[in-house]
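Notes from hallway chat w/ T.B., transcribed later so I don't forget. T.B. wanted the structure written out for a chain they're using in a teaching module, and asked if we could keep both sequence and structure tokens in one place. Agreed to drop them here.
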Amino acid sequence: MSAVVRSRRMRSVRIVIVSSLLLAACEQGGGDGDGQDVGDDETGGDSNPDNVHDQAAQHCVDVINMYRATIGVAPLQRWIEAETCSNDEAASDSMTGTPHGAFGACGEFAQNECPGWPGPPEQMLDGCLELMWAEGPGEPFEEHGHYINMSSTAYSMVACGFHETENGSWWSVQNFK
């Protein structure tokens, strides 16, 4: 599939996803009902003043946790300490053109990546994470790995990193620990 066709298809998918996410957020009323801060607007969320992509990182954690909630899995904490390193991984991967090329540099146990998506990051995440979630559940791992990483109870934290390329596309990593 050409990049132009993929881009057009993803634009349509993003519109549907954003609408669905907005509707779900309104229906859920924010939060996950356990009294823990999962970063929604009502609770204020976590903040990382050292991360130039702070809002996108919080959105990333919120979207992953929204999907986890659909299967009754506890939310992941935002792994703030690894965000700057995760930004560096996304930059490195974009420069080499190799998804997961810098995997492990931040001490993560698993990684998902959105390579070369149109931005801004808050919008590209909705489409990319939706496609990853749609992979599962199932075996073999190679066909469902993104879903398995997002839904696994073996991880308690996630750090999301971002990098914008010279041509305006975005790379994002989601590092699980």
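Follow-up for T.B.: The first strand starts at residue 77 and ends at 78. Might be a good example for the class.
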